[in-house]
Amino acid sequence: xxxxxxxxxxxxxxxxxxxxxxxxxxxxxxxxxxxxxxxxxxxxxxxxxxxxxxxxxxxxxxxxxxxxxxxxxxxxxxxxxxxxxxxxxxxxxxxxxxxxxxxxxxxxxxxxxxxxxxxxxxxxxxxxxxxxxxxxxxxxxxxxxxxxxxxxxxxxxxxxxxxxxxxxxxxxxxxxxxxxxxxxxxxxxxxxxxxxxxxxxxxxxxxxxxxxxxxxxxxxxxxxxxxxxxxxxxxxxxxxxxxxxxxxxxxxxxxxxxxxxxxxxxxxxxxxxxxxxxxxxxxx
Length: 284
Fold this sequence. Notes:
By secondary structure, the chain is of the alpha/beta class. The protein has a single domain (about 5-155, about 180-210, about 250-275), classed as Rossmann fold, CATH 3.40.50.720. It has helices at about 10-20, 35-40, 80-85, 125-135, 160-165, 180-195, 210-225, 235-240, 240-245, 255-260, 270-275, and strands at about 5, 25-30, 45-50, 65, 95-100, 110-115, 145-150, 150, 170, 175, 180, 200-205, 210, 230, 255. Helix 2 (about 35-40) links the parallel strand 2 and strand 3 (about 45-50). Helix 1 crosses helix 6. It is globular and about 55 Å long. InterPro entries: Epimerase_deHydtase, NAD(P)-bd_dom_sf, NAD(P)-dependent_oxidoreduct. This is NAD(P)H-binding protein. It holds the Pfam family Epimerase.
């Protein structure tokens, strides 16, 4: 029986756990707190609470290792991933699947971006992810890396911002943004585990980039609300937080042909319009 260990078994990890269980794999989800472990157990997922910021984590044996836990919020490395890989040095999994970020590409001026483009991380959080990728490049066994952009799905949409009528950047001033539905990201992780070649990197995206405001307008339309007002880039630079502004300073359009063709993955939600109905509940 294939043993799968999911490090950071949150929303995406739970979806992967269900897909793995359907294949009759033995699944263990690793989470930070006992409350999270209890939540997984109530969903029928075997769980273990571990603090990856402590040395020598006691991790179960794994044939397939999914690493979805984020790095710490400070620093320029990912010591959590380092601790996990060290724990498996003497008993390496057959394959490691890592979900990182498309932020490692940095600003690409709106160009179409394939996985062959050299990375150029320009924020601290992207540099931590780039360091994680570099660490995985030295791992002796097969590795697959999914570079994910914005992940959306149930409970992962800016519904309250749309309801409040918060402004969005005018399309003429907007960077290109990319996204993937959380169910498709889980399917991509499973496909990479089952049939991805060694040292493969994938843009885990639906391949349909839009200006930033397009998602807000589509949500408003689905909810029967007015389209959000727009503001100029100059006004956004004055009024928005540094974190939010950081996403305005990078523009790229992610190509997903490798994901679809090499893994043979058919996306359930190939664009935002297709995914919204599955992501908005009647209460929204």
